[in-house]
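Practice record 12: protein with 6R9.
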Amino acid sequence: MAEETLSNLLQEDRTFPPADEFAAAANGTQELYDQAADSDAFWADQARKYLTWDTDFGEVLDWSEAPVAKWFIGGRLNAAVNCVDRHVEAGNGDRVALHFIGEPGDTRDITYAELHDQVQRAANVLVELGVQTGDRVAIYLPMIPEAVVAMLACARLGAPHSVVFGGFSADALRSRIADGEAKVVVTADGGYRRGKPSALKPAVDDAISGETTIEHVLVIRRTGSEVDWTEGRDHWWHEALEAAEPTHEAESFDSEHPLFILYTSGTTGKPKGILHTTGGYLTQCAYTSHVVHDVHPETDVYWCTADIGWVTGHSYIVYGPMALGATQVMYEGTPDTPHKGRWWEIIADKKVSVFYTAPTAIRACMKWGEEFPNAHDLSSLRLLGSVGEPINPEAWMWYRRVIGGDRTPIVDTWWQTETGAIMASPLPGVTAARPGSTQLAIPGVELDVVDETGKSVPDGSGGYLVIRKPWPAMLRGIWGDLERYKETYWARFPGLYFAGDGAKKDTDGNLWVLGRVDDVMNVSGHRLSTTEIESALVSHPKVAEAAVVGATDAMTGQAVVAFVILRSEAVSEADEKGEGAELVAELRNHVAKEIGPIAKPRQILVVAELPKTRSGKIMRRLLRDVAEKREVGDVTTLADSSVMDLIKTGLDPAG
Ligand code: 6R9
């Protein structure tokens, strides 16, 4: 399959050299690649160029405790001051930081001066609630400005935030709170989703019922819906901020002070708390916002459509653009509420010039049709970006033609929660783009594709994507589990960071990322682990065993397909009452409740057996063949080779 995709991709020879006008004004330059030859000196320059340090650093990189890096040794700074205060001090307090647009149509423009006020007050409130430097604060919010305020208030205090995507369930929130031992959770009564208020507070109440580390809950009023209230524990955000001291003196923290934890799916069921620290992370976020997104803070209106609950929201809504003092759009809702032209209407209205979104969204818009974007004036756009999964050349071409008016460069940016910031991308104004290729490592980063033995493969062939040298925004570990960090990323190829992605280099040395090679799925740009969903299914009383695979899906990249073996009581019950369809619906909802709606399987197939090796490992490769309606591959290592026939004949032909 990967081979097939690849031969298509490698025939892709359309190139799009930068327009002269764009190149003349671009932040990125060819010289950056040359300057990066001495990478320590290069990163030291970027750190001093983009950030304000209260104490300058000495040594650039300390790799003596590899694979845990330390960057910008001895340097001290405050991330929130870098993202807010210094812009106000420089006289840009009146500049809009956020053009907020709520799903129901309410709008709010928040300047850097207003943000400064809010962040200071919120920091004071957290202190009053007992939050000290180093304490963790969970944030469980919709896409509203207070999410940014809460994150920056934590950063200001040196209290690492742990943002949990608002679409996750109470159970997911509970396990993340427990793993990070968060002391306070910031939430809202709810948010607007597809035209209706969608409650959040009940999930928090549920997640912290029983034994918990949470002492206080700060609640933002967004929808005005009724909420249950626990006196002494729950506090209204607006009341607390109003009563708080308006100023807060920020402290500087060590460059390696933890900035946040963000949970992401791994190959086992337990999500990994990815740890990021301050100086290196912020440097690479600001640098890439500047040279890859080409943000010109005085003139651009930038919009990244990601949710704050994913790393893209952390790095390219909060830390990168705000370190530069950019003006951006923040939108609460979905792209098709109340109509399928909503995004394009916002771009025309706010004159958005730089737009960053995901291939899954682009493919959905392609399906809805060109008439929606065509109905709006998109001429303000000058640069488009893509992130989250491979973008197929057809979607790339559509994006450029329909959204970019055949004029804008596209940056296809490869990176991960773990890398913290963009690692590979064309540099707009410098590189000639290839539809579907993430192209080259950015200046300062060294990527490679290696074979099974860790040897670099020649141009024109494929293998595993690795990173050869430490980079400033790299993760500093997995929260509370250093061994798992070493094991997951550094054990496969000693001395190299293994990203978990398969990739190819074309004959010109361009990079084509092909997707995950481990048991992690990528559904609409969201990482989900097969094991996590299997565990959720097996937690249902009617399920005996489950195997989950990611099947190629034209719309979402991959889709979750589950194979379940029912407990015998459930089988006879379903047969007798002819309630198979109801049971499948019940199981899909169960997964949504356990993990969140994005993890809902597209399809659940009830089977009598699962294909297993003699050592008992489920052969997901074979199930993927079934899910993708292909000829089933080699079954010789199965303990019982007739199992696949049983599965195929047992399946309802409508599947
Ligand atoms: C930023 C983000 C990381 C995984 C990564 C890869 C896939 C991201 C991509 C891409 C091809 C791109 N991925 N960007 N694949 N081309 N431009 O998405 O972080 O949620 O941790 O996912 O996403 O498979 O390994 P995260």
